[in-house]
Amino acid sequence: MVEYYLCGFLVGHYGGPEMIALYGVLVQITILQLGFVMMVSTPTWTAVAEGLARGDRPWAQGAARRLYLYGSAFGLCAFAGLVLLGPKVFSIWLGADFTGIPRSLFACYGFYFVAHVWRHLNHVMMIGTGQVGKLARIQFAESAVVAAVAWPALMGGASSPSPEPSCRGRWRAD
Questions:
Q1: Which of 1, 96, 117, 169 is the most buried (most CB within 10 A)?
Q2: Are 18 and 164 contacting, i.e. CB atoms less than 8 angstroms apart?
């Protein structure tokens, strides 16, 4: 939550309303796509925990391995879909104001999403294996690092909100 809201505040403050709109769309896409991963990971981590409690370590390891395989495959497919289809789908879905968003931005977002899926899978496996205290420390450290990196990056990226009324002027290369 800290990551989303702090970054959203910084994007809105330094990028202006059109940038926070794009940021909001990408956050919603993250939530939507991660929902698919969670439909598989939620029952799996509880099954892994039960398997470990029963002493069936080989089964639990196999289930965890499959979870990582399926989650990674989904993340990579999402990455490819964003890079290949993102510009066209966004312009149809969101209209002319989002036409011209470069593929490189979709690639950066896709990389973020793959990393987010991997992090989620690690977190649910840590919960399933009883490492909740360690997970809380990792989550706090991740949030602190994101905040520390985002602040200067966004501060250096824009000095004031953009006067442009739409994303169209931002993204067009012409």
A1: 117
A2: yes
The per-residue pLDDT for 62 is 92
- Whether the per-residue pLDDT at 126 is higher than 50: the answer is yes
Residue 32 DSSP one-character state: H
Q: How far apart are CA 71 and CA 40, in angstroms?
A: 8
Handedness of CA 47, 48, 51, 56 (dihedral sign): positive
Q: Residue 77 to residues 32, 35, 39, 61, 113: CA-CA distances in angstroms? A: 15, 15, 17, 24, 11
Residue type, 40: V
Report if residue 138 sits inside a domain: yes
CA-CA distance, 66 to 63, in Å (whole number)?
A: 5
Range of the domain at 141: 58-154
How many structural domains is the chain composed of?
A: 1
- Using one digit for the tens of pLDDT, what is the confidence trace for 23-45? 788 888 888 888 888 888 888 88
